[in-house]
Structure formats: C-alpha cells, structure tokens
Design brief:
One of its GO terms (molecular function) is 4 iron, 4 sulfur cluster binding. One of its GO terms (biological process) is protein maturation. This is Hydrogenase formation protein HypD. This protein is an alpha/beta fold and about 375 residues long. The chain has 2 domains: about 1-65 and about 170-245, 3-Layer(aba) Sandwich (Rossmann fold); about 65-170 and about 255-300, HypD, alpha/beta domain 2 (Rossmann fold), CATH 3.40.50. About 40% of the residues lie in helices and about 15% in strands. The chain has 17 helices and 11 strands. The strands form 2 sheets. A 6-stranded mixed β-sheet has the order 4-3-5-6-11-10, sandwiched between helices. The protein has a 5-stranded parallel β-sheet with strand order 2-1-7-8-9. α9 packs across α14. The longest helix is centred in the middle third of the chain and has 17 residues, at about 220-240. The radius of gyration is 21 Å and the shape is globular. Mean pLDDT is about 90; it is low at about 365-380.
C-alpha cells in the first residue's frame, strides 16, 4: 500500500502539473507505447489535466491488440482440434477472429483453458501426456522470457506434447515504423517501463538521435506518467532528444541480462505482422530451428491461413495514434465489449476498451495537424 499511495499523491501530482504548465510554451505531441499507461492516463484523467499544448497520443502498446487476425484464426483452428488443450491468458479469449473467438470455440466443445503462466501450460502437458498442450505465446519483450523458459524446460523434461503458438513483437522496430509513417505527428515518446526492465534502454538512444525525439522510460502510476511527461516536455522545449530513465526503481540500462540470454537462446528475430498496421521488418521473434519441434504453427500445419480485417474497424489507425477511439464511427455503437470489431475494444490494455470503460464517449475537438482519414496510410 505504501508505494500505491506514494505514487498517487494528489499534492505531488499538482506540483508536477504546475511544472509542466510553467515549462511548456508551444504545442507538443507525445506518444505512450504501452497499453497499461494508456489505461492509467484515461482512468485518472491525466490527459484532461495537462495544459492544452500537451497532447497524448496512444500508440501500439497493447500486445493483444496487435496480434494479427491470421494468428487469431490459427489459434481458433488449433483449439478446435480433438486431443488439444489450448491455453491462453484470459484477455485473448474475447479477441475476434474471422467469425468467432476462443470463447465460442470453448462453447462448441474445444478444451480452451485460461492460465496465468506458460509454466501452468507446461504442467498440464506433464499431467496429460496423451494430449497436445498449446500455449498462446503473445506479447512484447515483457512476456518473452517466461515463454522462452517454458520451451527450454519442455526440452529439458523431454515433453514432446507441448508447443507454443508464437506471436511475439518488439517495441524498437515499431517506434521506427511510427516515425517513418507519412502522417506521423509524434514528437516524443514515453517508453514502456516493463519492456525496458527486461531489455534495458540500449536500443533507444540511436532512435532518439535519428528521429530527433526525446524518449523517457516511464512507469504506470499517475506520478510516474506525469514525471515522464515533465521530462519529455522539458527536453522538447530545450531542443534536446535523448533517452532518460524516469523509472529507475525498476529499470536499469542493461535490463535483465539473464532474461535477455534466455530470449536469445530460444528465439530469433523475424519480420512480424501487426494487426491493423501491417508488416514491420525485424519486429518480432520466432522459435529458433533448435526449438522448431515446439512450434505449434508448424506442428499443426496452419501456416497457410490468410485473412482480411473488417472494413468498418479503424483499430489500426487507433494503434498508430492517427485517431482517438471516439473518432471511429463504430465506437460504442456497432463495436462494444460485447460485440467487438477489433481487439482494441476487448483487451485489458486496448485504447478503445479504456475509453469505453471510463466513459470517454465523445469525439475530441479536432486539432491542427491531426491526420484526416484520407491521409492515413498503413505502416509498411
């Protein structure tokens, strides 16, 4: 409780807001690349408390949201097969595939189970040697070490009935894709603290220098976020563009070397498609050849599935920070948590879900420089 109270102190929050107000002299647009930060911002109304010159843009920081539709359909296909126990974190079960989701598969008789760790799925494989156990391995760098450890342990234990359906993505290539997109308005970043706690900050200085943007590693509590914004605005006002660590209680420059070694042993970098955005080079991980026997995509031969997003869903533009959720005509009408068109409405880290949950139902006032729908172009 001490730390929850400490980083929610309203008097300290007001002081930080006053400092931001005293510092800012012109409009700035900052992007948070973390769905947890987005929910904290909307829940606490941080974006509404900031000076009008400071705009927060929600980026592709929700790992569930960026998992491509074709991977969801592969999960549905595998989970529907007899003899399979399909394991996933709970927020994947409502993510819509083509025509259904994992809840529907479970209702139709598929053995779909919610677990809290890939090691839970590994234990199921040990207890059910006659069943194929598949874990849905999604996420940013944060969840990769545990998924890598599960595969490492499966090989050590000689479990041949365990596999991963992998859709891991990496943040730095996404930042590069955002900055090179035609309609990009981002002038600074709040970097995700949990990602940097694993990988460190060594990949970010080159991006900050190349694109001339400050990058401030930020936590998730209100004071963490306000401090990140304060530092980013201060850099922008001074004409600086460097990496700052505003989350030192969790993040070191080198990250977690043991976790990084485990990732590098099991996974290798690959191109990856991001739902609603497109293919980003070197933006994901896949299992190395030495661990290919644990790759569910190949084990169940679902590599040929191809899909197309519903035209009325604009979640890709939300994920790129080109529009706010309320600027989508489907938001809160044909797209709700009970009948979602896209993952951003059902994920616990999705921007659309945050706006719906905390009753941000009105479209924002258009700002100068905001991209129109005609200007929006998918990230290549």
């Amino acid at each position: 409780m001490k730390y929850i109270d400490e980083f929610n102190d309203p008097d300290l929050a007001r002081r930080l807001l006053d400092e931001i107000q005293a510092t800012v002299t012109r409009p700035w647009a900052l992007m948070e690349v973390c769905g947890g930060q987005t929910h904290s911002i909307i829940r606490h109304g941080i974006d509404q408390l900031l000076p009008e010159q400071v705009e927060l843009i929600h980026g592709p920081g929700c790992p569930v949201c960026v998992t491509p539709l074709e991977v969801i359909d592969k999960a549905l296909e595998i989970a529907s097969r007899p003899g399979v126990i399909f394991c996933s974190f709970g927020d994947m079960l409502r993510v819509p595939g083509t025509g259904r989701d994992l809840f529907r598969v479970k209702g139709e008789g598929g053995d779909v189970r919610v677990v809290y760790s890939p090691l839970d799925a590994l234990e199921l494989a040990r207890r059910h040697p006659d069943r194929e156990v598949v874990f849905f391995a999604i996420g940013f760098e944060t969840t990769a070490p545990a998924n890598a450890m599960a595969v490492h342990q499966a090989r050590r234990l000689g479990l041949s009935n365990f596999s991963l359906l992998v859709s891991h993505v990496r943040v730095p290539p996404a930042v590069e894709a955002i900055m090179t997109a035609p309609a990009c308005r981002v002038q600074g970043f709040l970097a995700a603290g949990h990602v940097c706690s694993v990988m460190g900050t060594t990949e970010y200085p080159e991006l900050a220098e190349r694109f001339g943007v400050p990058m401030v590693v930020t936590g998730f509590e209100p004071l963490d976020i306000l401090e990140g914004i304060r530092r980013a605005v201060r850099q922008l006002e001074r004409g600086e563009h460097r990496v700052e660590n505003a989350y030192p209680r969790a993040v070191r420059e080198e990250g977690n070397p043991a976790a990084v070694r485990m990732i590098e042993e099991v996974f290798e970098v690959t191109d990856r498609s991001w739902r609603g955005i497109g293919r980003i080079p070197a933006s994901g991980w896949r299992l190395r050849d030495a661990f290919r026997a644990y790759d569910a995509e190949h084990r169940f031969d679902v590599t040929g599935i191809r899909t197309e997003e519903p035209a009325e869903c604009r979640s890709g533009e939300v994920l790129q920070g080109l529009i706010k959720p309320t600027e989508c005509a489907a938001f809160g009408t044909t797209c709700t948590p009970r009948s979602p068109l896209g993952a951003t409405m059902v994920s616990s880290e999705g921007a659309c879900a945050a706006y719906y949950l905390y009753r941000r139902m009105n479209a924002p006032t258009p700002q100068a420089g905001r991209a129109t729908q005609e200007e929006v172009a998918p990230v290549a």
